[in-house]
């Protein structure tokens, strides 16, 4: 039965915005008193909250699909729809949130950190908000937009000051139980610990957390055993404690060979950019199980060789608690030194200064795409895409309102600059989007220059005839008919043919 999960994919669906309402206010002796349709409510967001009381992602492993509440629909008498309730998902402190492409969105290392993982949809305006001096009684309302939907990866990296590393059954869990109030599962067979255990140690006035990393064997950094799944929990630790088993009965094993193999695996594990490599962090060595006479003799024998490698060595027993006090104070010293170093080296967080935007970003962009059926012009941008999503295309008045909004945004000028002509295929939004044939709006205020830069359709040949060309063709046809009648009259006068009576 699974009790600990440190990596899971969650499928999120934020709430959909409610539709606006189309309503007309009715009063005594005044049945059409004006629009009074209310706006729809906004969809609920999905928020991730770093909670110190949560220690595992097991709940999301069992229920990976999470959906927020939709916004309510607007109603008459100016009644707005209710906003969808925010869905708060508590995750352990130290959770890293990644998108589908594997990019890190946020590292939730501080308790209380909030991250909006899925933004709810926007509620549509009612016809009351759409009324104007030119449109006194709109017969349409805007639709609510869909909330964000997608998949995120939650990856837990245990936050501890000291990591206990070593071979299976070296006594790491027993050491945590002896030094803290933690009660991990302890047994005399390999891979008893299937997930990192955390404990809090008090050494004088210094309090720090410890964690064991289970399943480290030769080849762990390459995926053997369980080590690859849990080595990432060492990334955040300030110091390492090598727990070596001096009472092992396995052939070919001894404290020196175990230490060499664990060092090799730690050195082979790639840490994220900007972090100190695992082997470059402060390290101590604990020779465990010296309560066994043979183990004490072996510890006394290998201690000088380990100290020659530059390590401080402590002989301990988790059964008799011998040497644990000295070890706990030594670890506390390493932790305190690291904390002081971070205070000095870490730069001061910059002050956040809010300033108005100097310039306005482009509200849209026109992208030209070639295809089997000719050139296609795609319009991308937050505003036009949202406006299309809010339009009820079964309502002609709503479609006309969309056309007015797009024209005011300058879409037609952008299409002309991109080389679009009347009848060109235009798509709004990514993917299939909304497809239509563009017919430009020409007003008396300005002349629309139809054509790409460097060309003029008034000079270049065009398959679409202009009014001048139609008049010229008509005049030529009339002249040809008049010439034909005159020719017949000349032939008749010359006696070439007589009219039958």
From TrEMBL:
Gene Ontology terms, MF aspect: GTP binding; GTPase activity; magnesium ion binding
EC number: 3.6.5.-
Keyword Metal-binding appears in the UniProt entry: yes
Taxonomy, superkingdom: Bacteria
Protein family (similarity comment): Belongs to the TRAFAC class OBG-HflX-like GTPase superfamily. OBG GTPase family.
Known role: An essential GTPase which binds GTP, GDP and possibly (p)ppGpp with moderate affinity, with high nucleotide exchange rates and a fairly low GTP hydrolysis rate. Plays a role in control of the cell cycle, stress response, ribosome biogenesis and in those bacteria that undergo differentiation, in morphogenesis control.
Protein name (database record): GTPase Obg
Annotated source species: Leucobacter edaphi
Gene that this sequence comes from: obgE
């Amino acid at each position: 039965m699974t009790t600990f999960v440190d990596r899971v994919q969650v499928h999120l669906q934020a709430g959909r915005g409610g539709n606006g309402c189309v309503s007309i206010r009715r009063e005594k002796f005044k049945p059409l008193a004006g629009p009074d349709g209310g706006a729809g409510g906004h969809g609920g967001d999905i928020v991730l909250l770093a909670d110190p009381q949560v220690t595992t992602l097991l709940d999301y492993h069992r229920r990976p699909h999470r959906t927020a509440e939709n916004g309510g629909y607007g109603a008459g008498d100016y009644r707005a729809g209710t906003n969808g309730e925010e869905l708060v998902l508590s995750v352990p402190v130290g959770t890293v949130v990644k998108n589908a492409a594997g990019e890190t969105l946020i590292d939730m290392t501080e308790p209380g950190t909030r991250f909006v993982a899925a933004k709810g949809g926007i509620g549509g305006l009612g016809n009351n908000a759409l009324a104007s001096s030119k449109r006194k009684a709109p017969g349409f309302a805007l639709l609510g937009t869909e909330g964000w939907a997608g998949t995120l990866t939650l990856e837990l990296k245990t936050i501890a000051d000291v990591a206990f590393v070593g071979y299976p059954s070296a006594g790491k869990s027993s050491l945590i139980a002896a030094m803290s109030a933690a009660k991990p599962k302890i047994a005399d067979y390999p891979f008893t610990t299937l997930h990192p255990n955390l404990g809090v140690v008090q050494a004088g006035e210094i309090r720090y957390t410890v964690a064991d990393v289970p399943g480290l064997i030769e080849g762990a950094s390459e995926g053997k055993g369980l080590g690859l799944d849990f080595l990432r929990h060492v990334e955040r630790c300030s110091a390492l404690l090598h727990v070596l088993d001096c009472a092992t009965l396995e052939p070919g094993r001894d404290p020196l060979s175990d230490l060499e193999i664990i060092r090799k695996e730690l050195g082979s594990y790639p840490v994220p950019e900007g972090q100190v490599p695992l082997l470059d962090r402060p390290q101590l060595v604990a020779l465990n199980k010296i309560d066994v006479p043979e183990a004490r003799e072996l510890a006394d024998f290998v201690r000088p060789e380990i100290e020659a490698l530059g390590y401080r060595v402590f002989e301990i027993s988790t059964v008799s608690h011998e040497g644990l006090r000295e070890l706990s104070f030594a670890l506390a010293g390493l932790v305190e030194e690291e904390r002081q170093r971070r205070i000095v080296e870490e730069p001061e967080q910059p002050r956040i200064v809010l300033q108005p935007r100097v310039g306005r970003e482009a509200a849209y962009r026109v992208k030209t795409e070639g295809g089997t059926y000719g050139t296609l012009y795609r319009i991308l941008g937050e505003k036009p895409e949202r406006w299309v999503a809010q339009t009820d295309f079964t309502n002609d008045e709503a479609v006309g309102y969309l056309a007015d909004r797009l024209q005011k945004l300058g879409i037609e000028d952008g299409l002309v600059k991109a080389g679009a002509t009347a009848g060109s295929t235009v798509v709004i939004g990514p993917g299939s989007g909304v497809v239509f044939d563009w017919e430009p709006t020409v007003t008396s205020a300005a002349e629309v220059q139809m054509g790409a830069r460097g060309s003029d359709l008034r000079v270049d040949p065009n398959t679409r005839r202009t009014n001048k060309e139609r008049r010229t063709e008509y005049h030529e046809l009339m002249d040809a008919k008049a010439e034909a009648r005159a020719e017949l009259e000349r032939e008749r006068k010359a006696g070439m043919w007589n009219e039958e009576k």
